[in-house]
Every structure is written in C-alpha cells, then in structure tokens.
Amino acid sequence: RLDESLVDLARVIKPTLTILDAVRILVANGPQGGSLEDVKTLNTIIAGVDQVAVDSYGATLFGMRGQDLGYVRLAHKEGMGNMDLTKAVIARINL
Q1: Could you list the mean pLDDT of each consecutive 10-residue stretch along the chain, which spans 95 residues?
Q2: What SS3 string covers 26-93?
Q3: How many Cα atoms are found within 13 Å in the side-chain-facing hemisphere of 81?
Q4: Strand, coil or helix: what is 94?
Q5: Distance CA 65, CA 94 (A)
Q6: I need a surface site. Which of 8, 45, 49, 94 has the fewest CB within 10 A?
Q7: Closest Cα to residue 51, out of 82, 30, 24, 74?
Q8: Contact 51, 28 (CB under 8 A)
C-alpha cells in the first residue's frame, strides 16, 4: 500500500514547491545500481507548485506516463494535483 501511504503523506505535508533532481537518474538495477551504465545523465531539474504534475513529468524521463504510477493516479483522482501534462505550463530554461 505504498501508493496510498505516499498520498496520505502528501495530505499532511503540503509542499508549496516540489523540486525533482534529474541531473543523473538510475535507469536499471535499482535501488543502488550495478554500474555506471545504469545511470543516465540528463542535467535536468524540474520544479513546480503542483507535486502531481512534477512527478508526472518525471515519469516521462523513464519512458512512462504519470498514470503509470499508482500514487500519481491516486493523487490526481483525489484532486491533489494534475497529472495531465497537456494542461500544465512547462517552461524549459537552458543554461
């Protein structure tokens, strides 16, 4: 029941800003990885006020959609945020 627990936690601790660090992501052999080939360098930081949208966008970095993640689906259904990225304002900033 990890999905429900994550949503319960988000109900109690209501973040005003969510930051997802995707500078390097582990794409295989998690949680600790087996080798450097298991790590993909994206040099990406995602920030937003909608924690559901941030995690939904983060799922795309792994070739998934937000609805593929149980806790994102549940939080969206309960009105805690929006997993539909077509309705999100996404700004890309290159440094």
Answers
A1: 94 92 92 85 95 96 96 96 93 82
A2: ECCCCCCCCCHHHEEEEEEEEEECCHHHHHHHHHHCCCCCHHHCHHHHHHHHCCCCCCCHHHCCCCCC
A3: 28
A4: coil
A5: 24
A6: 94
A7: 82
A8: no
Task: Find the helix or strand (DSSP H, E) in which 21 lies.
Answer: strand 18-26
pTM: 0.89
The single-letter code of the amino acid at 92 is R
Question: Cis peptide leading into 31, omega within 30 of 0?
Answer: yes
User: Alpha-carbon Rg of the chain, whole angstroms?
Assistant: 14
Residue 91 backbone dihedrals phi, psi, to 5 degrees: -115, 130
φ/ψ of 84, rounded to 5, equals -85, 100
The pLDDT assigned to 94 comes to 78
